Amino acid sequence: MQEIFNIFIKSIFIDNMIFAYFLGMCSYLAVSKTVKTSVGLGAAVIFVLGITVPVDYMLNEYILKAGALEWLDASFVNVDLSFLSFIMFIAIIASMVQLVEMIVEKFSPALYSSLGIFLPLIAVNCAILGGSLFMQEREYQSLAQATSFGLGSGVGWFLAIVGIAAIREKIRYSDVPAPLRGLGITFIITGLMGIAFMSFLGIKL
Amino acid sequence: MSAEIREREALFSSKNIKLLKNPLNLSNPITVQVLGICSALAVTAKLEPAIVMAISVTLVTAVANVVISVLRNGIPPRIRIIVQLVVVATLVIVVDQILKAFVYDVSKQLSVFVGLIITNCIIMGRLEAFAMANKPWPSFLDGIGNGLGYGLILIVIAFFRELLGSGSIYGFNLIPEQFYELGYKNNGLMILPPMALIVVGVIIWVQRYYTRDLIEKN
Asked: How near does any CA of chain B get to the CA of A44, in Å?
């Protein structure tokens, strides 16, 4: 239990998707103009990561890994399908996003219209695929660990995008040098936030 | 009939050259269109992985552009994202296997970022914006151009980060031994992730200072 909680905290602060690995930067930069939309996108990312990482974990564990197909028949013990993992993961992610989109549209039209274009775009958000690939690379031991990693990464991403959106709303009142306005200053602020987040590196969990 | 009458466009007409040249500065994928940032920052602590990454992305973008451009009239619009993802994912698997076979160390350094070429926004962006509406040859040039524009920025970032962070270029030490004896130190911060963001910020600053049209109205 403690291990699961540690993974959760670690993936939020220490291995933050944005500040430590720069995943999902494209939508992070494009959608962080106001706090309201960034909260919506952040919530959608938590949701999708929380679903796709465990599903991809099971896919990896029971189909793709070397020897994973043993449960089917003993003769499959030498089969290693891990070279297929990119295409399988992205297929799962794309279909999950489609499913989530349909469910949200059906049960919460208000949320659906506020998320708008972001929901389908999540399929090509690097943070989602990155979550699955890190899950595969770090070899988590159980489904619960993979799930807590997925949720934690999502929460970390959420914190980062809401933080930068709040700063960008305020920075409009500042006198930024003209060539730096907009994109440039956003990069530099993200860098400074990243340096602040590095202070969590010393924490051993 | 009409196809025969119509004058054939030269392979390197000025329009096509523009496709190749624009992404290097005016519509640079990283600093202007803000696409493909994720991988650009993560692989640039050293020059070697940055160059490998630049070549991989250029190849994948160009080939995926051609494939999608050839198929563009047969793809139903509703499922085009999935079709595009499958094409790109297949190409990335090929690139990944080649990297593992020939440059294993670099492939290990790049770790998940090879796989993340699939969701590199440059590729999806070009497929959506260009290849779905243009013929294969211009699409190919567009892919190469955008790949090079991406690679250019990657190499500039990696150059400064490796020079200031490790005192070397492509693994060769450039800072003379005497400097270290006089008290010069490598700036370890340059190797850490946050500095990549700040270096990009500075590159954008310099580029926009010289290309005034790109400045955003606040």
From this structure: 17
